Give the backbone structure.
Amino acid sequence: MDDADLAASLDLDVALRAIGATADVDDVDGLRRELIGKKSRVAAVKVGIKNLPNDAKPVVGAAVKEFTTAVSDALDSRRSEIEREALAKRGPAVDFTLGTHGRRRGHLHLITQTQRELEDVFVALGYQVAEGPEVEDDWHNFEALNFPPGHPARAMQDTFYVQLGEPEQVVLRTHTSPVQIRVMETQPPPIFSIMPGRVYRNEAPSPRNSSVFHQIEGLAIDRGITFGDLAGTMQAFTTAYFGEGVRSRLLPSYFPFTEPSAEYGVSCPFCDGGGCRVCSHTGWIELGGAGMVDPNVLVNVGIDPEEFSGFAFGFGIERMPMIKYGVQPIKTFFDDDIRFLEQY
Ligand code: PHE
């Protein structure tokens, strides 16, 4: 075969088909050597150009160049194609689809939101908001509230004691009622205050009980305050928080610091009092305690029970959103699971 025949034998179609049939980059690189490498047919043609007649030289030269360029380009694009396919099959090495550590706007915890909502209701009724310490002394948590030492009602409170000072004299407050005492000790009547805060009870956790929870206490002391004022206030609060149509009730109960004492409940907002799973088929949901401030308590804080009277109430804050949104169990509030918190 002379050089002219060789040039004619550079069949581009055959070469391109071979390139298209390669399966991996090694195939492509092997084919590159074979088609346009030092020992390839086109390399031999190129070497032979100098021996050709002058008029044939540019024609064969152009054919060699055209073949080499076309084959080289086709090999390059086939190689990239194979690499892209391999990458796509493997999937991205780093998954950026989760996003980065951007800043997310937080919001108040559902308990804080509820506490503020309850405060707003009572502030609108003319109440002030007061706070007190969570680590309390026996006087404020018990004794001033008419729980004398050894009184059986103390056992109802499942107290956590703090090892400080005399034994059993410092406690984690078991209710917000000690803040009533602190307010009355520092402020003359008339008093219209609410006292929200965290309280502690040493009781076994259950779907409805947690050893840490929140209460909101209310206290009204003035001349001529009656049980009717208490009932009216509880109904005003019930309507403001739960909406029209939810009724409140007061049933006889016992607390050492109120006389008479009552249990405060609302008609079940889910079944309108007809009975359902939420209210254990009773039609009512108990929210807390209430009553007329016991005269002994007024005496303990230096207020004359002949001149002044008042009512007090206290209930759990968690109970409110548990009822309103069906949150269960109570520990959901304290698990700090962002997926729960984000919903409110
Ligand atoms: N402190 C009481 C409790 O935690 C509730 C209560 C408050 C009852 C005010 C009457 C008056 O059980």
